[in-house]
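pls design
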């Protein structure tokens, strides 16, 4: 009965209070379903999001016979947008780890910056590797190196692991093809190349500033490196001769970024330049090569070749490597696609219009300006703090705000800046309900209180600093 009443309220769409109350009530119900299932019932995020999408769809006006099928249709549409990219990214990440290519990239930064700047080397390594590789995998990869550097150089252990984690966390939330930024780009209709460029533009200075915050924390909190529970002797790093060469090691990381970004740049130059036939011919080529699916496929092929040439696995071992990577990627595809369906149902419930009317008064005022960045950050932070998952926070926030973006001109800046604000907000409030909190605590050998004082403070500071930097860039470099 409640569902029918809400649908009736929305269908009639009276003025003022009712038009706002109905969609916001549906939004509250949807969020309560997600948080309740994830936090209270410990249900997998995929089941929580798809259930929330079904609930919101049932409460939203429309033909009753279509209310289930439209959830499935939006799920498929989002899977079509991001499925291949995430699958290829999972293969690339697995191959980089198993072939030793990721280790080679780390040693590149150590060689360039020297052991005295080993904390910067670890932060840079995490920053780069977290573009195609998931955060937890990057942390597992770099932690033995951080412990080894601490023993060899005597540098603060806390400084090393905080810098390492912060570098990986920034790009994980801002730069595709990691799932969260990829889904935000799809939901908000942002060109993937522009999302990469703006993500890097906002992430790089944030990493620079947060390094000094991390150093300040490390000087004031003394945490020794402790033996890790349940682990045997720490493995010795592989000698250089057992690692692949630098170019094939780093090519799977930079190739998709270059190809996708090149397509965005050429497409931008081609607008309003009809007389420049050469640009349009180049654009025809970059349209193909810069397609995210093709770019990631090429990178995955290179990564697979590097693994095969370096380790010479048997056919069975090679197949198991691909299958294990696709299994981990498949879970992410399910979660992000379910999140896309949830966001689409929120749009059909006219949640965006309700929030816009609530913020802009009569609903006719222009909805834009820097205040939208702060609102997006605040919503993402609340959702992150409530249920713990950065990806779920990004999914829900972008779904709420998608319908508000009439045009970049109405916002006053490129929507990629809004995506960056959501990404930073989804990092704030990282505490005990987040898996990243426990990865840092248990793998780093810290207590829960120590992790709250160090890791939670670091990522929350990073989020606020990143928001301010994003707002500054949106003001001085709106890209519209």
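designed seq:
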């Amino acid at each position: 009965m409640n569902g029918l009443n809400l649908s009736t309220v929305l269908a009639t769409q009276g003025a003022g209070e009712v038009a706002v109350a109905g969609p916001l009530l549906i939004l509250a119900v949807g969020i309560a379903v997600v948080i309740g299932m994830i936090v209270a019932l410990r249900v997998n995020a995929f089941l929580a999001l798809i259930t929330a999408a079904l609930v919101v769809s049932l409460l939203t006006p429309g033909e009753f016979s279509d209310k289930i099928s439209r959830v499935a249709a939006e799920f498929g549409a989002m899977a079509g947008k991001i499925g291949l990219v995430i699958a290829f990214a999972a293969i690339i990440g697995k191959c980089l780890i198993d072939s030793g290519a990721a280790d080679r990239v780390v040693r590149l930064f150590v060689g360039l910056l020297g052991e005295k700047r080993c904390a910067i080397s670890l932060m840079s390594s995490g920053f780069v590797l977290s573009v195609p590789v998931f955060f937890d995998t990057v942390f597992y990869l770099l932690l033995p190196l951080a412990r080894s550097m601490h023993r060899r150089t005597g540098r603060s252990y806390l400084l090393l692991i905080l810098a390492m984690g912060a570098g990986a966390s920034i790009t994980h939330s801002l730069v595709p093809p990691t799932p969260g930024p990829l889904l935000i780009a799809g939901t908000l209709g942002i060109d993937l190349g522009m999302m990469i460029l703006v993500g890097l533009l906002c992430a790089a200075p944030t990493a620079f500033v947060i390094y000094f915050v991390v150093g300040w924390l490390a000087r004031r909190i003394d945490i020794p490196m402790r033996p890790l529970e349940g682990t045997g002797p720490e493995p010795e790093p592989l000698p250089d001769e057992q690692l692949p060469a630098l170019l094939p090691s780093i090519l799977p990381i930079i190739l998709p970024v270059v190809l996708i970004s090149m397509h965005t740049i050429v497409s931008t130059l081609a607008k309003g330049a009809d007389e420049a036939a050469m640009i349009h011919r180049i654009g025809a080529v970059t349209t193909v090569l810069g397609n995210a699916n093709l770019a990631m496929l090429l990178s995955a092929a290179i990564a697979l070749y590097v693994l095969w040439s370096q380790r010479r696995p048997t056919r069975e071992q090679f197949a198991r490597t691909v299958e294990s990577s696709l299994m981990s990627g498949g879970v992410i595809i399910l979660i992000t696609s379910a999140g896309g369906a949830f966001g689409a149902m929120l749009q059909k419930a006219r949640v965006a219009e309700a929030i816009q009317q609530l913020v802009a008064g009569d609903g006719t005022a222009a909805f834009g300006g820097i205040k939208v960045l702060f609102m997006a950050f605040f919503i993402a932070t609340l959702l992150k703090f409530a249920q713990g998952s950065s990806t779920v926070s990004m999914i829900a926030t972008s779904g709420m705000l998608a319908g508000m973006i009439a045009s970049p001109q109405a916002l006053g800046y490129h929507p990629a800046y809004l995506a960056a604000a959501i990404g930073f907000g989804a990092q704030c409030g990282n505490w005990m309900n987040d898996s990243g909190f426990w990865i840092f605590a248990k793998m780093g050998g810290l207590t829960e209180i120590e992790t709250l004082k160090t890791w939670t403070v670091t990522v929350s500071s990073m989020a606020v600093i990143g928001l301010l930097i994003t707002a500054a860039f949106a003001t001085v470099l709106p890209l519209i």
